[in-house]
């Protein structure tokens, strides 16, 4: 006998099938990814995350966005992580934009092409959402296109860093120079953050007809990208408060903090309203050898197992100028593949051809991954295929 919840689900599926007329195929509605112990699950089966990060999906051209999604699918990724950005000052210039909004660089190098999601309304003296084609419609397009390709999205509500405004632009609206604590403790910025979160979660995407809280294309929400800098107690209280708020609006999706979580070793994992933890691992930034970083992967996954929550290696990269860089990726990916305590990985960062037709120059960190058929691309594609197929 079908119990009541299952009966409702079955009737819903029948209704969807009945609507598929003239012989068109009937497809079940996708489900939400859930946390179950120290692994992710989709409809009761393990969901191993093999994914990529990309930073320009809410300000690139439509062609640039679809190239990234196509490349992610070609790599065999199942999750793409990105940020909701840019954030600017006021459109009339009375409240300055603290970053180079008018840069003419290529998109990957933060030429945002006049696109922005949030701004300061100087007439009404409050935060405002850009609902024009160069605003939240960019996010609508991203989600609709990801859904077409069967990709899930990890979405950070904001970026902590000021590369395209983020948290730092919001504290600048109020005249503060405090880059560490102000945003997380001031009543006005906290109210702005809540308003933005509610707007996103309750927005209906006109391209799909779904509210974001009801769209399984979203793998999970992250409070911000790398909000690590506030004092520990303030950081922990803000994460607890805001993750609880997100869950009050959206019980369907996973919620994470977005912390880089390296020096404090998954410090958010004990917060009840955080569903999974993650860390951003870069041997270059923490002066680790290839083997030492491999040990870190095992250590952090063991912490997650003990806590009973999943943990993702959510960002990692290794400069291609290192002669052993392909072998390093192979080693780390195999460790995650072989360790049942590890829930998945997302490489930093997948960058596709720009509208110029070329891959952008990345001579600083040299972490960019391209669909160029090279050894690293083949390594990531093979690892994604194998990890996703793990029982």
TrEMBL record:
<dbReference type="Pfam" id="PF26410">
    <property type="entry name" value="GH5_mannosidase"/>
</dbReference>
<dbReference type="InterPro" id="IPR017853">
    <property type="entry name" value="GH"/>
</dbReference>
<feature type="signal peptide">
    <location>
        <begin position="1"/>
        <end position="27"/>
    </location>
</feature>
<keyword id="KW-0378">Hydrolase</keyword>
<dbReference type="GO" id="GO:0016985">
    <property type="term" value="F:mannan endo-1,4-beta-mannosidase activity"/>
</dbReference>
<dbReference type="GO" id="GO:0005576">
    <property type="term" value="C:extracellular region"/>
</dbReference>
<feature type="domain" description="Glycoside hydrolase family 5">
    <location>
        <begin position="137"/>
        <end position="325"/>
    </location>
</feature>
<keyword id="KW-0732">Signal</keyword>
<dbReference type="InterPro" id="IPR045053">
    <property type="entry name" value="MAN-like"/>
</dbReference>
<dbReference type="GO" id="GO:0000272">
    <property type="term" value="P:polysaccharide catabolic process"/>
</dbReference>
<dbReference type="InterPro" id="IPR001547">
    <property type="entry name" value="Glyco_hydro_5"/>
</dbReference>
<keyword id="KW-0326">Glycosidase</keyword>
<keyword id="KW-0964">Secreted</keyword>
<protein>
    <recommendedName>
        <fullName>mannan endo-1,4-beta-mannosidase</fullName>
        <ecNumber>3.2.1.78</ecNumber>
    </recommendedName>
</protein>
């Amino acid at each position: 006998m079908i119990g009541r919840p299952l009966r409702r689900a079955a009737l819903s599926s029948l209704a969807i099938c009945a609507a598929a007329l003239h012989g068109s195929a009937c497809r079940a509605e996708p489900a939400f990814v859930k946390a179950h112990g120290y692994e992710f699950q989709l409809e009761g089966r393990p969901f191993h995350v093999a994914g990529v990060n990309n930073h320009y999906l809410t300000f690139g051209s439509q062609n640039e966005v679809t190239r990234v999604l196509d490349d992610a699918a070609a790599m065999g990724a199942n999750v793409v992580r990105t940020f909701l950005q840019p954030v600017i000052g006021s459109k009339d210039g009375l409240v300055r934009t603290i970053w180079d909004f008018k840069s003419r660089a290529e998109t990957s190098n933060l030429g945002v092409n006049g696109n922005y999601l949030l701004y300061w309304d100087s007439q009404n003296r409050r935060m405002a959402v850009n609902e024009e084609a160069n605003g939240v419609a960019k996010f609508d397009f991203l989600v609709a296109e990801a859904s077409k390709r069967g990709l899930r999205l990890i979405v950070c509500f904001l970026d902590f860093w000021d590369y395209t405004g983020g948290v730092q632009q919001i504290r600048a609206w109020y005249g503060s120079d405090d880059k560490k604590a102000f945003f997380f403790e001031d009543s006005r910025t906290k109210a702005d953050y809540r308003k933005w979160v509610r707007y996103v979660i309750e927005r209906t995407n006109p391209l799909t007809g779904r509210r974001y809280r009801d769209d399984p294309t979203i793998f999970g929400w992250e409070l911000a990208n790398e909000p690590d800098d506030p004092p520990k107690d303030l950081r922990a209280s803000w994460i607890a408060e805001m993750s609880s708020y997100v869950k009050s609006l959206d019980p369907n999706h996973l919620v994470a903090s977005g912390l880089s979580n390296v020096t404090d070793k998954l410090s958010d994992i004990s917060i009840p309203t955080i569903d999974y933890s993650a860390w951003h691992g870069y041997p270059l930034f923490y002066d680790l050898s290839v083997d030492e970083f491999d040990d870190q992967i095992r250590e952090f996954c063991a912490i997650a197992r003990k806590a009973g929550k999943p943990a993702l290696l959510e960002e990692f990269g290794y400069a291609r100028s290192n002669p052993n860089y392909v072998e390093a990726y192979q080693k780390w990916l195999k460790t995650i593949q072989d360790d049942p305590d590890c829930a998945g990985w997302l490489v930093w960062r997948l960058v596709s051809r720009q509208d110029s037709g070329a891959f952008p120059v990345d001579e600083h960190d040299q972490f960019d991954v391209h669909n160029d058929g090279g050894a690293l691309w083949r390594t990531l594609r093979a690892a994604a295929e194998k990890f996703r197929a793990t029982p």
